[in-house]
Amino acid sequence: MKKEIKILSIILTTIIFYLLLQGCSEDSPTKPEGNNVPALSSKTIDNNGGTIKTDNIEIYIPPGAFQTGHEIKILNSSEDNLFSTNAASDFFVVDGLPPEFAAPIKIKIKYKGTLSDSSFVAIGENNFISSLNEETISYHLISAKDSAGFLIAEIPPINNQSLGKSLVNSSVNEDKLSINLGAIAGYVSYLSSKKHFNINTPSSVLTQAYDLADYLESAYLKIQGIGFKYSKRTRWPIEVTVKRFKKPDVYGYTSASIWGNNYGYLEFNFDKMDESDNMKVTAGHEFFHLVQDLYDPRSGYSKRRTPMPNFWLNEASSVWSEALFIGNSNYVSSVFELNAFDILKGAKTGDTDPNDGTVTQDYGYGMSSLIKYITNKYGVGKLAEIYNKISEGKTPFQAVSSVLPINVGFTWHSFLKSLFSFDIYKSDNFRPALLSSYATGEHQKFTIKNASDSLATYKSKLSDCSATIFSVENQFKEMSSNAMLQFTCKDWKFQIYKYNSSSSELIGAGKDTLTVENYKKLTDDGYRIAAVLYNDDYDSPFEHSKDYQMEIRVLAPQTISWVDFYVEYTGTFEYSDSDTTYTFTNDATIGEFVRNVSSVINGNSITISQDSTDSYYQRSTKIQLTFDDINNPTNIVDFAFDQTENGTYNTKEISSVVGSNVSFSTEKYGNTGTRYIYTGDISQYLSKLSFLRQQTIYDNSVTSTELKSYESQGKIQIIVEYK
Length: 723
Known about the structure:
By secondary structure, this protein is an alpha+beta fold.
């Protein structure tokens, strides 16, 4: 359809914001001119009304507009000219206006040169701009009439209903307003196809303004399509101003209104209008902010006076929404990439701090990953449900938790798993390799360079719904092939990932202690290891934090080469054959030197089995040992020895020893062995000591020698030889 230019008289929709609190310093951003700028004219105007003027500007306040007297000043503006050649006059400041007045105020500004296209009065007011995270002077254009060298326009009144005085902490009557005014020419107005947006733009970028209108109408439909409603705004179209920005890299922003939901407007950077993809994303992002403002239950005055309590949620949702407007489900916003790891800082960061709003904003950019996690898992309609809860007065985390099957705290583990498996977002600037860079700014990065690098300990604290990353890199080529990596953080939950430049995979999750088996092989395959420790406590207002101590150990489980096991004792034996039975006492030994022919290690326990044969016997031996710490043993918790020997001359011997909780004295045996030896009352440690020898003699009768009892004094010796 052919696009047509509408040169029209714009309905009076100026937005005036509170700029001057009594007692502000001269460099306060709410009064950019400062107290030291001399007034061009000054006059006190009361309920009777009056006029204040200079040669170039005149302000007329009708009778009944003010309830009491107010000193009104006109000053030269020190603001940069952001309208360039479209500025048709000097800019001025009108200071001292009350924040509510009952009748429209008439403005006359003397213009310079010849007017072209449509003419406006630009009114600049200081607004808190969420996308900039700061107050700045934003401009709204009022249609103006030419009258004998002056442009004439009116500012509509501000009343109690729009101010929401009952919601304002301080007395409105004690506050003053300050606005910037100037004449503008060479602008045209273009009404979008669905009449939801009126674009006021320099004629030089009119073609790009057509595209901007289409982007905004598309965003209107997409945001509406995921469940958001616009019923709290009954006045359309939304006014859109194109002008130069003080910050040349900014593409656009939203300005809400002191008059309330019907007067919010948008501004876009003249110098960025040619960048179609970025403008498309910005148009949707900033329009979404305007929609979010409809769900903010505060008054217009409060919205513009202070940062919003749902600041992080608004930024997170708008960043998430950019993929809708660009039309690419794999799209990853650049502001997310820059702030992806800010989610680690915790829920407290989401509370708006007027002294450090940048932290909250960056946190919100990063938390777009949580919004995508929720919409992926539960559907895009959940986001509108969250904002319905915001409109009821809930905080962002309360709102999110109230629409999920489980609250944010219980969701935290699965969210982090999706995030750091890079299932939510993945791009060149947000990729697995960055896990090592964000191991708490590399302060929690453990690099193993030699055998002595076997332990790293980190201490700090984490607040509610936060996390921290530990990264381990192996540069020790001679590391044992069966080395393990053990993470221990008592009473804490964490996740273990193996990652390289292109992939990240969760390989373990749990509490207290997690062990990475085959660590050397993983490093040989090009992987690093990351541990994500997290606090999933959810206790608003998130004031608490918990201390942690993470220990990362390199375990090189030493293969056991052999075990020499012996119990020396004095026993009473019973001998019997077919003719006789008698008892005798004798010193004896049960044990064996067992090579590690077959062994199974399970935690701190080892089972060694050996079968051997020679010309005299066939012997099968099994030894089971449990250590307090198999890698650095000091005691044997329990042990068991079983042996069966079938020898020549038709003999068979069966021996068995079982013991537990033996506090052996230990000593080194050679270079790699550990010797456990106990001499004394062995009966207190042995639960079983048995021996039976049987022999089949020439007449096929069987003789037997069986241990019936043993004396308490004896000796237990176990030598363990490690490779």
